[in-house]
Amino acid sequence: MGKTLNIAPITRIEGHASVAVHLDDTGNVSDARLHVLSLRGFEQFVLGRPVEEVPRIVNRICGICPWQHHLASNKAADECLGLELPPTGRKLRELCQMMAYIPDKILHFYFLAAPDFVLGPDSDYSVRNVVGIVGANPELAKKVVHMRYKGQMMLEKFAGKVIHPIAGVVGGFSKPLKEEERKEILQGIQELKEFSLFTIKFAREEVFPKYLDAVKVLGVFPSGYLGTVRPSDGALELYDGELRLMDQNGEYDQFKYSEYMNYIGEHTEPWSYLKFPYAKKWGDLKLDENDPVGVYRANTLARINVCDQMATPKAQEELDIFRKEFGRPTHLTLLYHWARLIELVQACERAEELLNDPEITGREIRCQDIQPRAGEGVGCVEAPRGTLIHHYQTDDNGFVTMANLIVGTTHNNAPMNLSVRQAAKAVIKDGNYDQGLLNRVEMAIRAYDP
């Protein structure tokens, strides 16, 4: 008789999920599925609201990346109202995007992913966590906590809130950056940049090489990729640019945010509450890890695959090392962790660039003449967990009549399910399994930082 192995809850992710691994009567994996109770309802909550209120509502969707929802929503609202932001207002928003990115990357690598690589996937689960990391290297652990706290508090001190932000407003930003604030933040960002360079060197030389065998087999399957690039040169963009949808062979379409519905569809399955976005032009979605159709991934590895280059020098040096080792595109799922640290370096460098821009302390931070109107807008940023799309329509009074959201983790629903199935088949054979093997299945999910 077959049986079902339930992995619940999945540990060290930002939320709640479980995996059901179905074994046939020989004890081998016949199927494996990721289950998420994901309904939030924000697409309905915001209907009938003034569009300028929506950025203060949707930041409650996620307590880990509220800034990305706040900023994408502001961008969509700006477009609905036909607003062109002053340069300083736009740059202050991008600065907050970079400052929110940095502690998020530190959180995932050291607190959520590192126990698998530093302590090992077979270590006792009671110590395979952040407490175990502290015990293994207390000095580094103290440094990590300090640097993440520093990043969070810098953002809170400048923008008022690090969680559930309100500093971005329709038409721009709510307050200017004072010169003394600029100098203080710049000093902190430079310290964080040095820590980011230490982190990626530490991971590249001492952590990841020990587990390249696991990298080559866990959760691996061919897919497409989605990310944002700078239109002028194809460099990776985290705040504003154009979307690039790349197939598994490296061919791609590049398009404006407003065209996303021409390329991305949303599929449903009766066994999941979470929708399955897919690439329309590649055919109807086929959830087969050996021959997937329509499946693309978002998040760090996707962005590293689709971009032609990084936008900053130290990050480009790291991308050169990565591509020399793994090529482009690479389909090795656990490389999400490596790609995440390359992005950490770029976020620090880009924040430093913005803080050295003379316009960043300008006084013109918001459009002055803002009037309600009927309109439509698509706002998009790269959230840490993937491309984030907010799409609104408004009536003549500026009230929201339609809202559609595709968040980063939703893009990865299909690939996470395929990675789980592939990983389970790779490690569970003839009915033999243990906690270490089941943790390897979880590792295929944690790579996506869902």
Structure commentary:
β7 (242-246) and β8 form a beta hairpin. The chain is α+β, with helices and mostly antiparallel strands and 450 residues long. α4 (87-119) runs parallel beside α7 and α14 (413-427) packs antiparallel against α15. The protein has a domain at 3-35. The protein is 43% helix and 16% strand. The longest helix is centred in the N-terminal third of the chain and has 33 residues, at 87-119. The protein is built from 15 helices and 14 strands.
Brief descriptors of the model:
single chain; 3-stranded antiparallel β-sheet; 450 residues; 4-stranded mixed β-sheet; globular; alpha+beta
Give the strand content.
Answer: 15-25%
Structural class: alpha+beta
Per DSSP, the total helix count is 15
* Amount of helix: 40-55%
Overall geometry: globular
Low-confidence stretches: none
Total number of strands: 14
Question: First CA to last CA: what distance?
Answer: 33 Å
Order of helices and strands: EEEHHHHHHEEHHEEEHEEEHHHEEEHHH
Biggest sheet statistics = 4 strands, mixed
Overall pLDDT level: 96
| Strand order, largest beta sheet | 8-7-6-11
Radius of gyration: 22 Å
Helix-strand blueprint:
Blueprint: E1 3-7, E2 18-23, E3 29-35, H1 42-45, H2 54-57, H3 66-80, H4 87-119, H5 130-136, H6 138-159, E4 168-169, E5 172-173, H7 179-207, H8 212-215, E6 224-229, E7 242-246, E8 252-255, H9 260-263, E9 264-267, E10 276-279, E11 296-297, H10 300-306, H11 313-326, H12 336-355, E12 375-383, E13 386-394, E14 400-406, H13 408-411, H14 413-427, H15 435-446
Helix pairs in contact: 4-5, 4-6, 4-7, 4-12, 5-6, 6-7, 7-12, 10-12, 11-12, 14-15
